[in-house]
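ok so I'm stuck.
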Amino acid sequence: MTLNINGLVSHTRHQMLEEFLRKHDVEFTLLQEATSLNAITFKGYQTIDNIGTSGRETAIIAKEDLQMHRIRQLPSGRGLVACYNNICLLNKYGLSGSANRAERERETFYNSEVIELLPQVPTSLIMAGDFNRVQRATAQGTDIAVELWKDFSMDFN
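replied:
not stuck anymore, here's the structure
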Protein backbone atom coordinates (compact mmCIF):
# COMPACT_ATOMS: atom_id res chain seq x y z
CA MET A 1 0.00 0.00 0.00
CA THR A 2 1.23 3.52 -0.72
CA LEU A 3 -0.28 6.61 0.86
CA ASN A 4 0.45 10.34 1.00
CA ILE A 5 -0.40 11.01 4.65
CA ASN A 6 0.11 14.79 4.59
CA GLY A 7 1.86 14.79 7.96
CA LEU A 8 -0.40 12.45 9.95
CA VAL A 9 -0.42 14.94 12.79
CA SER A 10 -3.75 14.07 14.39
CA HIS A 11 -4.00 11.27 16.94
CA THR A 12 -7.32 10.19 15.41
CA ARG A 13 -5.81 9.84 11.92
CA HIS A 14 -2.90 7.87 13.39
CA GLN A 15 -5.33 5.47 15.10
CA MET A 16 -7.34 5.09 11.88
CA LEU A 17 -4.25 4.17 9.90
CA GLU A 18 -3.06 1.71 12.55
CA GLU A 19 -6.49 0.07 12.65
CA PHE A 20 -6.54 -0.17 8.85
CA LEU A 21 -3.10 -1.84 8.81
CA ARG A 22 -4.18 -4.45 11.36
CA LYS A 23 -7.65 -5.06 9.93
CA HIS A 24 -6.31 -5.68 6.41
CA ASP A 25 -3.14 -7.44 7.58
CA VAL A 26 -0.97 -5.07 5.50
CA GLU A 27 2.64 -6.26 5.33
CA PHE A 28 4.22 -3.09 3.88
CA THR A 29 3.08 0.50 3.63
CA LEU A 30 4.97 3.23 1.78
CA LEU A 31 4.20 6.70 3.15
CA GLN A 32 4.88 10.09 1.62
CA GLU A 33 4.82 13.44 3.43
CA ALA A 34 5.63 11.65 6.65
CA THR A 35 6.77 13.62 9.67
CA SER A 36 9.00 12.42 12.47
CA LEU A 37 7.59 8.92 12.69
CA ASN A 38 10.22 7.95 15.27
CA ALA A 39 7.78 9.29 17.85
CA ILE A 40 4.84 7.40 16.30
CA THR A 41 4.56 3.64 16.62
CA PHE A 42 2.19 1.19 15.05
CA LYS A 43 1.64 -1.90 17.17
CA GLY A 44 3.17 -4.90 15.39
CA TYR A 45 5.03 -2.75 12.85
CA GLN A 46 8.50 -1.28 12.42
CA THR A 47 9.10 2.16 10.92
CA ILE A 48 11.94 3.02 8.57
CA ASP A 49 11.79 6.75 8.01
CA ASN A 50 13.75 9.23 5.95
CA ILE A 51 12.86 12.69 7.18
CA GLY A 52 14.70 15.27 5.13
CA THR A 53 15.47 18.92 5.60
CA SER A 54 11.86 20.02 5.06
CA GLY A 55 10.74 17.75 7.91
CA ARG A 56 8.23 15.83 5.73
CA GLU A 57 9.26 13.08 3.45
CA THR A 58 9.19 9.25 3.05
CA ALA A 59 8.77 6.20 5.27
CA ILE A 60 8.24 2.47 4.98
CA ILE A 61 6.13 0.69 7.56
CA ALA A 62 6.63 -3.10 7.69
CA LYS A 63 5.41 -5.85 9.96
CA GLU A 64 7.82 -6.37 12.86
CA ASP A 65 8.65 -9.94 11.88
CA LEU A 66 9.81 -8.99 8.37
CA GLN A 67 13.58 -8.53 8.32
CA MET A 68 14.25 -5.42 6.25
CA HIS A 69 17.77 -4.98 4.88
CA ARG A 70 19.79 -3.06 2.28
CA ILE A 71 18.20 0.20 3.46
CA ARG A 72 19.28 3.24 1.45
CA GLN A 73 18.06 6.81 1.77
CA LEU A 74 18.32 10.02 -0.21
CA PRO A 75 19.68 12.87 1.96
CA SER A 76 16.77 15.06 0.83
CA GLY A 77 14.31 12.62 2.44
CA ARG A 78 12.48 12.24 -0.89
CA GLY A 79 13.48 8.63 -1.44
CA LEU A 80 13.99 5.45 0.51
CA VAL A 81 14.55 1.80 -0.39
CA ALA A 82 14.40 -1.25 1.87
CA CYS A 83 14.47 -4.91 0.90
CA TYR A 84 12.81 -8.00 2.26
CA ASN A 85 14.24 -11.27 0.97
CA ASN A 86 14.56 -10.67 -2.79
CA ILE A 87 12.00 -7.86 -3.00
CA CYS A 88 13.05 -4.22 -2.78
CA LEU A 89 10.51 -1.50 -2.02
CA LEU A 90 11.43 1.90 -3.43
CA ASN A 91 9.38 4.75 -2.01
CA LYS A 92 9.78 8.17 -3.57
CA TYR A 93 8.12 11.52 -3.11
CA GLY A 94 8.38 13.52 -6.34
CA LEU A 95 9.00 17.23 -6.43
CA SER A 96 5.96 19.46 -6.60
CA GLY A 97 5.56 23.02 -7.72
CA SER A 98 5.07 24.82 -11.00
CA ALA A 99 6.21 23.18 -14.22
CA ASN A 100 8.61 26.00 -15.09
CA ARG A 101 10.31 26.08 -11.68
CA ALA A 102 10.59 22.37 -11.07
CA GLU A 103 11.07 20.80 -14.51
CA ARG A 104 14.86 20.63 -14.30
CA GLU A 105 14.72 19.62 -10.62
CA ARG A 106 12.33 16.77 -11.47
CA GLU A 107 14.58 15.56 -14.27
CA THR A 108 17.55 15.49 -11.88
CA PHE A 109 15.46 13.78 -9.21
CA TYR A 110 14.28 10.93 -11.45
CA ASN A 111 17.39 10.54 -13.62
CA SER A 112 20.02 10.92 -10.90
CA GLU A 113 18.70 10.67 -7.35
CA VAL A 114 16.09 7.93 -7.73
CA ILE A 115 18.55 5.85 -9.76
CA GLU A 116 20.93 5.95 -6.78
CA LEU A 117 18.32 4.02 -4.78
CA LEU A 118 17.97 1.18 -7.25
CA PRO A 119 19.34 -2.16 -6.10
CA GLN A 120 22.82 -2.99 -7.35
CA VAL A 121 22.03 -6.71 -7.66
CA PRO A 122 19.22 -8.41 -9.58
CA THR A 123 16.08 -8.39 -7.50
CA SER A 124 12.36 -7.75 -7.75
CA LEU A 125 11.54 -4.07 -7.41
CA ILE A 126 8.34 -2.40 -6.36
CA MET A 127 8.49 1.35 -6.94
CA ALA A 128 5.68 3.41 -5.53
CA GLY A 129 5.05 6.81 -4.07
CA ASP A 130 3.87 10.24 -5.04
CA PHE A 131 5.03 11.34 -8.50
CA ASN A 132 3.72 14.92 -8.08
CA ARG A 133 3.85 15.28 -11.81
CA VAL A 134 2.88 18.43 -13.65
CA GLN A 135 1.05 17.89 -16.89
CA ARG A 136 1.87 20.32 -19.63
CA ALA A 137 2.68 20.18 -23.30
CA THR A 138 6.25 20.42 -24.55
CA ALA A 139 7.26 21.84 -27.92
CA GLN A 140 6.73 18.34 -29.32
CA GLY A 141 3.19 18.24 -27.89
CA THR A 142 3.78 15.56 -25.26
CA ASP A 143 3.48 15.58 -21.50
CA ILE A 144 6.77 16.48 -19.77
CA ALA A 145 6.28 13.72 -17.18
CA VAL A 146 5.95 11.15 -19.97
CA GLU A 147 9.23 12.36 -21.47
CA LEU A 148 11.00 12.21 -18.10
CA TRP A 149 9.68 8.71 -17.47
CA LYS A 150 10.90 7.57 -20.92
CA ASP A 151 14.38 8.88 -20.11
CA PHE A 152 14.32 7.22 -16.70
CA SER A 153 13.03 3.85 -17.89
CA MET A 154 15.38 3.68 -20.90
CA ASP A 155 18.28 3.27 -18.49
CA PHE A 156 16.87 -0.12 -17.42
CA ASN A 157 15.92 -1.68 -20.77
